[in-house]
Amino acid sequence: MAITYNIDTKMFHLQAKDTSYIMQTVHSGYLAHLYWGKKIRTAHLSRKLRFIKRAFSPNPDPSDRTFSLDTLPQEYPAYGNTDFRTPAYQVQLENGSTVSDLRYKTHRIYKGKPKLEGLPATYAENENEAETLEIFLEDRLTRLRAILLYTVYEQLNVITRSVRFENKGSERIKLLRALSMNIDFYDDNFDFLHLFGAHCRERYIERKPLFVGTQSIESRRGASSHQHNPFIALLRKNANEDEGEVYGFNLVYSGNFLAQVEVDQFHTARVSLGINPFDFTWLLEPGGSFQTPEVVMVYSDCGLNGMSQTFHQLYRTRLARGSFRDKERPILINNWEATYFHFNEEKILQIAEEAKELGIELFVLDDGWFGKRNNDKSSLGDWIVNKDKLPNGLASLVKKVRDMGMQFGLWFEPEMISVDSELYRKHPDWCLHVPNRPRSEGRNQLILDLSRKDVCDYIICAVSDILASAPISYVKWDMNRHMTEIGSAALPPERQRETAHRYMLGLYRVMEEITSRFPHVLFESCSGGGGRFDPGILYYMPQTWTSDNTDAVSRLKIQYGTSLVYPIIAMGAHVSAVPNHQVHRMTSLDIRGHVAMSGNFGYELDLTKLSKKEKEIVKQQVAFYKDIRRLVQFGTFYRIVSPFEGNEAAWMFVSEDKSEAFAAYFRVLAEANAPLSFLRLKGLDPDKNYELMGSGEVYGGDELMYVGLNVPKRHGDFISVIWRLKEYR
After folding, report:
1. What pLDDT, in 10s, does the model give residues 114-128?
2. Rounded Cα distance, 515 and 644, in Å
3. Which candidate among 26, 53, 121, 510 keeps its CA 20 to 30 Å from the CA of 654?
């Protein structure tokens, strides 16, 4: 069994593939954390809990001055009863007090993994893949119950956690804080790693030592955000890409979040993660319940690569769903940077015809096809075809593209509304707003209030009508506005601070309904590029537009950082025109292609303006990617050289049976009289021989990994080299 309970020691032992997680109830029902790390056979624990009298650490039991919650390593700590550290949850009672006392009541262990009501989460395809523990904690005075959910994936180093609150009492209880997990490490000998950035500069890596006090990242924007991803990791000081212990935490949620580590006076480290308590409350009526989002916790003793590969495998196979989970993704052409809003049917067909000749498989019509949308100032919410641009209608255009032998895709921004729209004129209260306050606009738009059922129903109907009107096989779902004036005309005053979370529940309901109605459609999410690249969205939409920044050099860091958590098959990556529209850099088609084919490959430029030579390069890139597509999208990914540490970057993909590999090297700037470069590969079978395709040369896997390949000397800036390897028999 993956989860055992020792009734004599009151100890829980959770065992995943190569990791153990151990808890114990102590002193009348407090749940203590004992261990998380490399798998151990038994839970006797040579390093038992020690209780020491500490001055200024109060004692809940006056007869035992050695026991204080202020020094106890806990699983789900409260506020107000001797623990001065940050609590995992906090409530307010009808008498105004904020003290609670959750104690162990009972537990149950069962096979499989439950769904979380209204929320995305990882899943098990059969009950033998996972085992779940529910620990019931209860406050005897208020009868508030918290059910701690732990699921262990037996073949992965993964434990997931969440909490469900239930009000079993007779009075209303207000949740002020409801984080999804807490873990107290016994020491602080870690580095703190997270992914930060901005629009067009997402998921840069920062690593720094823990310090006494609190380190945190968060979003208060109503989305997981470009600025901070809902992921953190603790790394032992000696940990690197391939060696050392790493503890990764990722919240399966797309809204406001908080991830923090608090180091106390005794140098213990408390990690907690969940919905951001900032501007959040939730009113629990008697009999009511509240489910927190899931946190995925990954342990690796093989460095960051080991952590990443676990996240990749889990998210690709047990988070993403639907028919496209295991399908190769098509190579696409998107017209956005080719035309922006200025197109007609003739122009679209010209680009599509050129794309078909070059071997591209999917045409995507981006923003501007609906309402009176000739710029970004109008028509969001009016999902009716613009007959000035498409006089024969959408169905006719789709048929013409499909008759060429290509699939057809379409852009939407369903969560938004333009002030200049028929929908806004009809329903001005359907947007997020606060009475008597101005309605701030972003990108000339407001946000529909998805906490309202009628608004969600409208979006489901409007998008479904378009998708049912023609054989559309791909949707790009955009979201270009963060939340301000967060309020709902449909909620009473005491529930206004529930609006942001209710919005997320509404969004998840909308996505669940639409993706279920159209299972043949490949959905790609977008939020100004990567502003909502999180596991919550990946549950509904198996790929995300990684960044609006399509510059190849910028994408080295963006894609490298994203790969710490998210699988390559989830990353949309396109070749765009030069000078690049975001940073105005000139780069070759070679490096643009090599960076983009390290993800879900596509193009975003006007193919009709390319020279004959450029078109031939594109044709070769498309053919090459089709040959390596399964390897890139489903292979094991290895980071080799970090663009955050110097002038170079490199990574590679290896097939599951280690019979083939694809490696890519990039150098940003030329250097006079530079040293020679070589690349040690990873993940190959040392006992196999590999042919370097196109050269006729054969090398042992051990030689390629331990000695390495010479990087050809190339002149100029922005250089890339790729290698294709196949087992030589």
Report:
1. 999 999 999 999 999
2. 37
3. 121
Contact 458, 380 (CB under 8 A): no
Comparing CA positions, the residue from 217, 229, 299 lying closest to residue 259 is 217
Catalytically annotated residues: 478, 548
Closest CA to 83 of 71, 94, 91, 92: 71
Burial of residue 350 (number of CB atoms within 10 Å: 0-12, 13-18, 19+): middle
Angle between helices 612-634 and 345-357 (to 10 degrees): 70
Which residue carries 């309402």 as its tokens? 371
Across the range 31-55, mean pLDDT stands at 87
Spatial contact of 143 and 3, defined as CB atoms under 8 Å apart: no
Distances (CA, A) of 110 to 43, 75, 151, 503: 20, 20, 10, 32
Partners of 290 in beta bridges: 165
- Token pair, residue 203, equals 């998921």
One-letter amino acid at 277 equals P
Please compute the mean of the pLDDT values over residues 5-25 and round it to a whole number.
95
18: region left, alpha or beta (phi > 0 left; psi from -120 to 50 alpha): alpha
The Cα 223–Cα 482 span in angstroms is: 7
Q: What is the pLDDT of residues 479-508, one digit of tens each?
A: 999 999 999 999 999 999 999 999 999 999
Q: State the Cα–Cα distance between residues 542 and 94, nearest whole angstrom.
A: 44
Omega before 579 within 30 of 0, i.e. cis: yes
pLDDT at 508: 98
Q: Which amino acid is at 538?
A: L
Residue 65 has pLDDT above 70, yes or no: yes
Quick check: bond before 209 cis, omega within 30? no
| DSSP states of 273-293 | EEE--TT--EEE-TT-EEEPP
CA dihedral 68, 72, 76, 81 (to 10 degrees): 10
Dist CA 613 CA 624 (whole Å): 17
Residue with tokens 């993800």: 599
Alpha carbon of residue 373 to chain centroid: 31
pLDDT of residue 729: 86
- What are the tens digits of pLDDT across the range 647-682? 999 999 999 999 999 999 999 999 999 999 999 999
Length of the chain: 729
**For residue 503, which amino acid is it?**
Y
Residue 475 corresponds to which amino acid? V
